[in-house]
Design goal:
Shape: elongated
Number of strands: 16
Strand order of the largest sheet: 2-1-3-4-5
Distance between the termini: 58 Å
Largest sheet: 5 strands, parallel
Structural class: alpha/beta
Mean pLDDT: 83
Radius of gyration: 29 Å
Low-confidence stretches: 138-144, 403-413
């Protein structure tokens, strides 16, 4: 069994060995990693090598005060949160400590429970600040991560996002297979809604509903009050609060537990959230993006997804077809990632694809979609040689691809197309196949999707595209 990970690193400086020992023992019992020093010089050296998260510094020391030590730590770029220990409770001492960036101070004699609470609160605030800074950095990246695609469907989706942004829509459902770029489209929509430079005032916050343990999702989304449950030693803001004034991404919404779906519906309807253990509703002004690779209509029929939440989310749906249904985007994505990884790894490598490699890339079905293209191109850049990417540089399954099928594999099995003398366009072929599949399936979309070898969401998009409802 692995040892428990320390809750944080704490440096204690106090010339009274009894106090230092007492603080060290009490905080170790709380799960912190400790260094206890009694001399300012040794404490400064420990701050350099130990890199503490929190430093408990005695103000009144012989020779050099704790305030002088704090100034030296700041001059050296040591960012530990400082809690000053002092027998002098005058306002002057407190003001001096705060001007030097101290997070808090404790007056001697202090209660050990009070020390534990103050340390926990300081670490909680530090974690919250780091989280907010991270969210701002994520938001700043939005304008640097464009939507890559030249296919008509991508252009159409971009236009639709622009119209939704202009209308001020605040809830959008984005569906599509895994790896199609649902989160990227959410970021694109966020930028369209809030404009360039939005990172300074409109955060983009995300949570993966499938990856988060069920017992933690509610606390992450809505926050909790101190004492709401056993480990709630201080209040915590939820992601909806942190996203206030910006956007929140609920990734894989189809995996959200049923008991939370009703609470989410209330937030979407009333634009208010309540922390666990809280008594007051907190106003929430936020754009909600929900993404899923699941068939939510089927989940509603199976009883694993609330119908009222589905209808609320599905008011403004966007569907991202898989790459095999928009092959024109494959080379555009490959070239984009090639340039991006050449810059990232700062090394010479192939700067373009040979015609033969392009043919193989276009012919491959890319079951992992955009994510798979990214990974394949990254491997090519790291391991590649020469000026151009050749077929032998591609993974075996891609290098063996031949001609790209006009429709999804297996789509033409069991169907007959009527071919007029003037010929057919590719769209005419797709329309006829979809019509015949729906007729053969008696109007059942799930069965028709299986007949065509495509996902249910892809079929729904095609039905909408050709107005076959």
């Amino acid at each position: 069994m692995k040892p428990a990970r320390p809750k944080g690193r704490i440096l204690v400086l106090d010339d009274d060995e009894l106090i230092g020992s007492m603080l060290g023992r009490a905080l170790r019992q709380e799960g912190y990693e400790l260094r206890v020093e009694h001399d300012p010089g040794a404490a400064l050296e420990a701050a350099r090598s130990f890199v503490p998260d929190v430093a408990l510094l005695d103000v009144n020391l012989p020779g050099k005060s704790g305030l002088e030590l704090l100034q030296e730590m700041r001059d050296e770029g040591i960012t530990a949160q400082a809690i000053m220990l002092t027998a002098d409770d005058s306002a002057e001492t407190a003001v001096r400590a705060m001007k030097l960036g101290a997070a808090d101070y404790l007056t001697k004699p202090f209660d050990l429970d009070e020390v534990k609470i103050v340390v926990a609160n300081v670490l909680e605030k530090r974690a919250l600040k780091d989280q907010v800074d991270s969210l701002r950095r994520m938001s700043a990246e939005i304008v640097e991560r464009p939507i890559i695609g030249v296919s008509p469907v991508i252009e159409s989706l971009k236009e639709e996002v622009s119209r939704l942004a202009e209308a001020g829509v605040n809830t959008i459902l984005i569906t599509g297979e895994s790896g199609t770029g649902k989160e990227m489209f959410a970021r694109f929509a966020h930028a369209a809604m809030f404009g360039e430079g939005a990172d300074s005032y409109a955060p983009f916050v995300g949570i993966n509903c499938a990856a988060m343990p069920e017992n933690l999702v509610e606390s992450e989304l809505f926050g909790h009050e101190r004492g709401a449950f056993t480990d709630a030693k201080s209040e915590k803001k939820g992601l909806f609060e942190l996203a206030h004034g910006g956007s929140i991404l609920l990734d894989e919404i189809g995996d959200m537990p049923l008991f939370l779906q009703s609470k989410l519906l209330r937030v979407l309807e009333e634009r208010q959230a309540r922390r666990i253990g809280g008594r007051q509703d907190i106003p929430i002004e936020v754009v909600v993006f929900a993404t899923t690779n699941r068939d939510l209509e089927q989940a509603v029929e199976n009883g694993t997804f609330r119908p009222d939440l589905f209808y609320r989310l599905n008011a403004f749906p966007l569907h991202l077809p898989p790459l095999r249904e928009r092959r024109a985007d494959i080379l555009a994505l490959a070239r984009y990632f090639l340039g991006r990884f050449l810059v990232k790894y700062k090394r010479p490598g192939p700067t373009d694809f040979s015609p033969e490699a392009e043919a193989r890339l276009s012919a491959y079905d890319w079951p992992g979609n955009v994510r798979e293209v990214r990974n394949v191109v990254e491997r090519i850049v790291v391991l590649g040689r020469g000026q151009k990417v050749l077929p032998e540089h591609l993974p075996r399954e891609i290098a063996g691809a031949s001609a790209a099928p006009a429709v999804a594999p297996g789509a033409a099995k069991g169907f007959e197309l009527s071919l007029p003398d003037e010929g057919l366009s590719l769209e005419d072929v797709e329309r006829q196949l979809i019509e015949q599949a729906l007729a053969k399936a008696g109007g059942n979309k799930t069965v028709a999707a299986k007949l065509l070898g495509m996902t249910y969401d892809s079929l729904r998009y095609q039905i909408k595209k050709f107005a076959l409802e």
